[in-house]
Structures are given as C-alpha cells and as structure tokens.
Design goal:
This protein is of the alpha+beta class. The protein has two domains: 102 residues, Topoisomerase I, Chain A, domain 4 (Orthogonal Bundle); 68 residues, Gyrase A, domain 2, CATH 3.30.1360.40. A four-stranded antiparallel β-sheet has the order 3-4-6-5. Strand 1 and strand 2 form a beta hairpin. Helix 1 packs antiparallel against helix 4, helix 1 packs parallel to helix 5 and helix 4 packs antiparallel against helix 5.
Length: 187
C-alpha cells in the first residue's frame, strides 16, 4: 500500500463487494413469490461441465407463483430438472418435454422463520467480512505512520475514515436484512 488514499479505496471496494455478495445471496432465498434468482445460479451438469442455469436457459416468471425455464438446448431439460431437485431449494420442477414449470407453493410460518434465520446468518457473515476489511485497513494505516509515510494526524483521520466506511456498509447490510425479513413475512 502506497498511500492513505489507496488503503481507503481498496477498503471501500472490498466492503462494497461483501455487500454485493450478500445481496446476491439474499435474492436467492425463497420468498412467497416467484423470482428467477431462486434458480438462476444453480449449477447444471451439461456435457460434463458444471454450467449455471442462466447460461443454459431463459428463465421467466409469467405469473407471481410460477417460474418457467425454456432451455436453449431441449436435450438439457433432464439435466436441468435433476439439478433443481438436487439444489434442494424447496420446489419441485415439472418437465413437459419443452419447458420446465416450477410452481412456487405458499410458505408456512415455520418455513418463513427458518429462511429468516438463514438470512440473519448470511448478514452476520457479511458483517464479519466488513470487520475483517476494517482490521486490515487499520493495520495498513498504522504501518504507514510507523514507516514515516503518514503523520499522526493523517493516521487518525485514516482510521476515522475506515470506521465511517465500516458504519456505512454495516448499515446497508442491516437495511437489506430488514427488507428481506419484511418481504418474507408478507403473506
């Protein structure tokens, strides 16, 4: 790390990536309505290669409780169906030979609470990632000051800025979690 600005930029970037990853993970959690994100990241064995479903098929939600998967290669429908069942996302695909339809059943209260627990665990993992970035950045800032590349005031300002980033991204995580909880508890 050359300068305080480099440290802050990298910290901001790494924290942002942690939040984006959480957002992607939360979007894959099943709520009461159909969403392509429920299945798009499932890996399918396609000609001996693990391939994401979104690369093999068009995924649509023509109705609020239905996902329709149209494979680009109809011969891959069986593999797609097997992958969805193996992914254990709580849905049962129906293959008619042309498309796969996935009806989304209503979630029970108990299942909603289980999914919320999973969401809380994901959010906590993201918070830990942010705290790890903060710890690394703080060490780099202190090292800069020890090596004479920054003054004590610059060090203090750098530590303060890193903490501001940490607080901002932690709040984003909390907001995302609250939104997901609200979505899950809405019947």
């Amino acid at each position: 790390m050359e300068s305080l600005d480099d440290i802050l930029l990298e910290s901001d970037d790494r924290m942002d990536k942690a939040v984006q990853f959480l957002q992607q993970e939360l979007s894959g959690l099943r709520s009461g309505k159909a969403s392509p994100s429920l299945v798009e990241n499932i890996n399918v064995e396609y000609y001996g290669t693990q391939t994401r479903l979104r690369q093999l098929a068009n995924i649509a939600t023509p109705e609020p409780r239905l996902i329709v998967i149209s494979a680009y290669d109809p011969s891959s429908l069986q593999a797609i169906e097997r992958a969805i069942l193996a992914a254990n996302v709580g849905v049962t695909p129906m293959n008619d030979g042309r498309v796969i339809r996935i009806p989304i059943p209503e979630l029970s209260e108990e299942r909603r609470k289980e999914i919320i627990k999973v969401a809380h665990r994901m959010a906590e993992e993201a918070r830990v990632a942010i705290r790890n970035v903060r710890r690394d950045a703080n060490e780099h800032v202190k090292t800069l000051q020890k090596n004479g590349k920054a003054t004590e005031d610059e060090r203090d300002q750098g530590l303060e800025d890193v903490q501001k980033y940490t607080d901002t991204y932690t709040k984003k995580i909390d907001d995302m979690l609250a939104a997901k909880e609200k979505e899950l508890m809405t019947v």
